[in-house]
Automatic annotation (TrEMBL):
UniProt keyword terms in alphabetical order: ATP-binding, Helicase, Hydrolase, Nucleotide-binding
Basic and acidic residues bias: start-end ranges: 542-564
Originating species: Alkalitalea saponilacus
UniProt key word Hydrolase: yes
Residues annotated as domain Helicase C-terminal: 835-993
Pfam families: Helicase_C (PF00271), SNF2-rel_dom (PF00176)
InterPro entries recorded: Helicase_ATP-bd, Helicase_C-like, P-loop_NTPase, SNF2-like_sf, SNF2/RAD54-like_C, SNF2_N
The keyword DNA repair is annotated on this UniProt entry: no
Name of this protein: Superfamily II DNA or RNA helicase, SNF2 family
Coiled-coil intervals, chain numbering: none
Positions of the Helicase ATP-binding domain: 509-713
Molecular function terms, GO-annotated: ATP binding; helicase activity; hydrolase activity
Length: 997
């Protein structure tokens, strides 16, 4: 039966080696050696070998001829390597030592298992079962006997077989045939027995093969005792005569130091002190021997370390949140591999301070020196007192470090520069705790400070919470949405707010009551305007003024009274006469700034939802421009104006301190270097608010610009914001900075998307957006309307009613086109269109918010104008008109790539399923409810999982608005438009002429 055996034998030019063979043992016959066992055999037939056999094959493969060549002479072929091996430059050093080491490991491995080993003598051609080697399962022990006499030191060496049996005999090597199998760690062969030893080389045995004793002359005794004898006493059993060996055991004292590891990082090193000897807490030195020479009287004190006792202290350190960084080295559990050296040292120092009491209880001693510097590891206490002072939090903080009481302001530079090393007056190094950097660094980024008091703007109340309580409960806390309970709506608000709108209203009140500015950033269509109007109604609802508002109003009043200017009876031909008691609240007026196209909508919304508030439309060329404009403003609650007017009239507007200053579509002022931004900054107001659906359009600078307007300094200077947030977040993907920025802005920015508030919305929300015509568009429209009106009069006199209706319809269509954009009827028109601009602005906002929109128009040319503008602004779109041949391709393009779908009302009113869209724009519907419903149903149909917002755009002061009013008066008109191709046929001459008035 084949089995694995190991054969020790001599090889040419190599010497003694060991080879694993696959062999067959035959009774009284030579052993049949089939082939060398290699790792290839193990790979091919793994189940045929035991784990010990696999280990033996793997080990001995390291000293095969090929393995030796690859390791020591890879460029040489095998034959040349073996032939010239004795002349190899590494032969007597590396190569022989390598073989010696592997043979010793093989002997130890064979002693623990069942694999048989044989010795094949040089010159013998066969191997027999009688050549088997006997290897005990443990190391033999050398037994030294030293006798110090007046003539010298006489000593002998015997071998003690392994085991704990007292009857185990010792034997001498004298006159025995001893063969040395291994030398670095001795292994000897006597006949068929192999004895291996631990920790002693073969040279110690060789003299005793021919001698029974060795004598050391008197003159050499002292160095011999200091060297050889001490090592033997430490490592082996020694019998001594003429000198004394004392073996002691004692409880060590644990000792901690701060040292560097192999990577030059600071670590805590654990030592143990035994009498006058200190050991590093590893297991490399288990016994220490001290020698005392008292006038030739030698005493060896043999100290054995108590590893079990030492382990108890290792366990105690791990209980104190230390992790092993090596056998005797430790680091605080919160130290990470990417921390720098100074941060780890700070963590170590903080660990010492934190655990000082427990270390004393455990009887630890420690040395706080590190790289020639003494590190403070005493008691540290931090005292923080805070109070409010108008717009500031005042913080007084002191640190008691040992005997020194230090103002916390002294650490400002270290915290900002992330430098934990602070030198105390006595020269000791105080390592600022790492926790301080996360707890206080943000404080000094935004606070003003002197030697005693640190002043933090009230808007940074979250930073104050970190300062007072630390960041352990704040740093990883998820951002919670603002939750505010039910709030009673103000009297006079004529609207029913949805739950999320009530929440937004309450949030706006929270900001006002605490003197903060804010950004209301809800998705388009969620009612930012209504929430704001509700809050403003609350402000002017017989509300008492706070002291600051009263003070500012008194200043405004004094300025007014110092002038002889009287409030005019009529501000313009478009405004009603001002009533000197319109604003009864005693508060100054509030200024709302917006794109020109939205002024009319805001006025309509105020009239609809808060009719008791008095509005002054400060736009147009007929607006009153005077440095005493405040005398007029104080008679109104609200002043509406545009960004352009604000920029042009800022020198006058900045003289009046408004109650509220509100910016709608505040992304218009996202560029902090623009003139309009500079103008906005100059306006004085008690409260500031911005409204936008896209607080960030291009970069985080957009956010900084808008937040800086409502809460100046909240995010620091622009340079600081770029360095501290933009670069780490955008270039380094720094999540910690993202969390900090979110935490800073979270109380002052409220954003709800449609998806978040879907349960509070009806399936379809419809809104009419009134668009003011541009001045050039208005002139064009009025000129055309005047000409058409004169023509229609003549038509009614000369034509039949049906013919008159047809002519009126044609004229009506022409005015509708001009109301959309004059270029639709006159290619030479160079001006713009108020409706067109507002449509484009809304499209950009919706796409920026991540939504999709269907844009319906009765006029293909209208869509073509939009298409041209979308291309210039690089907004992706699809278009469907009656001329489209591949409808499915266009629809697929919208569903997969585009966010905007331009559709002519006739081509796309039916037969389409476009549930990707959640917004619908009706640019110029033909007032046919059925046609409108069909268009809306392209998005709002089975498969739609989101709420749908519908916007109808009407040009103010045009025929579009008049038809809408006529619809309100005559509900039956809706049926006409459903059933008749020309709805004007059923109108009287007076009703038709009213449309063109």
């Amino acid at each position: 039966m084949e089995q694995l055996i190991v054969v020790f034998t001599e090889k040419r030019n190599i010497g003694l080696t060991a080879i694993p063979y696959i062999a067959t043992l035959n009774n009284n016959e030579p052993i049949t050696l089939h082939e060398h066992a290699t790792m290839l055999h193990v790979e091919e037939s793994s189940d045929k070998f035991s784990s010990q056999e696999k280990e033996i094959i793997s080990l001995l493969s390291k000293i095969s001829d090929q393995a030796l060549r690859k390791k020591f002479s890879p460029q040489q072929n095998l034959k040349d390597f073996i032939d010239h091996l004795p002349q190899h430059r590494f032969y007597n050093t590396l190569i022989k030592d390598h073989i010696d080491k592997i043979l010793y490991q093989a002997i130890v491995l064979l002693s623990k298992g069942t694999t048989k080993a044989y010795f094949k003598n040089e010159g013998y051609s066969h191997l027999y079962t009688s050549d088997i080697l006997k290897i005990p399962n443990c190391a033999a022990q050398p037994v030294f006997t030293f006798d110090l006499t007046s003539e010298g030191l006489i000593y002998t060496l015997k071998v003690k077989q392994c085991g704990n049996d007292e009857n185990i005999k010792e034997f001498s090597l004298l006159n025995r045939e001893v063969e040395f199998i291994c030398h670095q760690s001795a292994a000897i062969k006597i006949q068929n027995d192999i004895w291996y030893f631990d920790g002693i080389d073969s040279n110690k045995f060789k003299p005793f093969i021919t001698k029974s004793t060795i004598t050391v002359p008197l003159r050499q005794i002292e160095p011999y005792m200091e060297g050889f004898v001490r090592n033997m006493v430490r490592n082996f059993d020694v019998t001594a005569k003429g000198f004394e060996i004392i073996t002691t055991k004692e409880e060590p004292v644990p000792h901690l130091t701060i040292e560097k590891d192999l990577k030059h990082f600071p670590v805590i090193a654990l030592h143990f002190r035994y009498s006058n000897r200190t050991f590093l807490a590893d297991r490399q030195s288990g016994i220490f021997v001290d020698l005392k020479n008292d006038d030739g009287r030698f005493t060896f004190t043999k100290l054995e370390r108590d590893f079990d006792y030492e382990q108890r202290y290792v366990n105690e350190l791990t209980k104190l949140e230390l992790l092993k960084s090596g056998e005797a080295l430790f680091k605080p559990a919160d130290a990470h591999c990417n921390d720098d050296s100074s941060e780890v040292l700070s963590l170590i120092t903080n660990w010492f301070i934190k655990n000082r009491k427990r270390l004393d209880e455990l009887n630890f001693s420690f040395d706080s020196g590190y790289e020639g510097r003494e590190i403070f590891v005493g008691k540290v206490s931090l005292t923080i007192d805070t109070n409010e002072d108008n717009d500031w939090f005042e913080i007084k903080a002191r640190v008691q470090i040992g005997e020194y009481l230090i103002s916390f302001y002294k650490f400002r530079k270290n915290l900002l520069e992330n430098n934990p090393e602070y030198i105390l007056p006595n020269g000791q190094l105080f390592m600022i705790p790492v926790e301080w950097f996360t707890r206080f660094s943000e404080l000094f980024n935004y606070a003003k400070s002197d030697k005693e008091v640190i002043r933090l703007p009230r808007a940074h109340f979250q930073i104050l919470e970190q300062v007072k309580h630390g960041v352990s409960n704040l740093e990883n806390a998820p951002q919670q949405p603002l939750v505010i309970g039910e709030t009673e709506l103000p009297k006079g608000i004529e609207a029913k707010l949805r739950p999320y709108q009530i929440e937004g209203y309450a949030w706006l009140n929270f900001l006002r009551e605490n003197g903060f500015g804010g950004i209301l950033a809800d998705d388009m269509g969620l009612g930012k305007t209504l929430q704001t109007i509700t809050m403003i109604q609350k402000v002017y609802q017989n509300e008492e003024r706070n002291p600051e508002e009263a003070e500012h109003e008194e200043v405004n009043k004094q300025l007014d009274d110092s002038s002889s200017h009287k409030v005019p009876q009529q501000l313009s031909m478009f405004d009603p006469p001002p009533n000197p008691v319109f604003n009864k609240s005693g508060l100054s007026a509030s200024l709302i700034v917006m794109p020109t196209s939205l002024v009319h909508n805001w006025q309509n919304e105020f009239n609809k939802f808060a009719p008791s508030l008095k509005i002054y439309n400060y736009t147009g060329t007929n607006r009153l421009r005077s440095k005493e404009i405040g005398k007029i403003f104080r008679h109104y609650h609200i002043v509406l104006t545009s960004y352009g007017v604000l920029r042009n009239d800022v020198e006058m507007l900045k003289l009046y301190r408004f109650n509220y200053f509100i910016l709608d579509e505040s992304q218009y002022v996202k560029n902090p270097t623009s003139k309009v931004y500079e103008a906005v900054k100059e306006i004085e107001a008690s409260h500031r608010l911005t409204l936008t659906g896209t607080p960030i359009e291009n970069s985080l600078v957009d956010l900084w610009a808008q937040m800086n307007l409502v809460n100046k300094g909240l995010l620091g200077s622009l340079a600081f914001f770029k360095r501290h947030f933009i670069q780490p977040i955008t270039k380094q993907n720094n999540e910690e900075k993202e969390i900090k920025l979110q935490r800073l802005i979270q109380p002052f920015l409220l954003r709800r998307t449609k998806e978040k508030v879907a349960k509070d919305l009806p399936p379809v929300m419809e809104q009419v957006l009134y668009c003011d015509m541009t001045p050039e568009q208005e002139r064009f429209y009025e000129k055309e309307k005047s000409g058409i009106r004169n023509s229609i009069y003549k038509v009614f006199e000369q034509k039949t009613p049906d013919q008159s209706a047809i002519m009126a319809l044609q004229a009506l269509t022409r005015l509708r086109q001009i109301a959309n954009h004059p270029v639709m009827v006159d290619d030479t028109y160079q001006g713009s269109s108020g409706k067109f601009e507002q449509i484009i602005d809304n499209l950009e906002s919706i796409v920026a918010e991540g939504h999709n929109v269907l844009v319906f128009s009765s006029f293909v040319k209208d869509l073509e104008l939009l298409e041209k503008e979308l291309v210039s602004r690089k907004l992706r779109y699809a278009k469907l008109t009656g001329a489209t041949r591949e409808r499915e391709k266009v629809i697929n393009e919208f569903n997969t790539k585009a966010s905007i779908f331009l559709i002519s009302l006739k081509a796309g009113g039916v037969g389409l399923n476009l549930t990707k869209a959640d917004y619908v724009f009706m640019l110029n519907p033909w007032w046919n409810p059925a046609a409108e419903a069909q268009a809306i149903n392209r998005a709002h149909r089975i498969g739609q999982t989101r709420n749908v917002f519908v916007y109808r755009f009407l040009s103010s002061g045009t025929i579009e608005e008049k038809i809408a009013r006529l619809q309100e008066k005559k509900m039956q008109l809706a049926d006409m438009f459903v059933n008749n191709n020309n709805p004007l046929t059923d109108l009287s001459k007076e009703e038709i002429m009213e449309l063109f008035s």
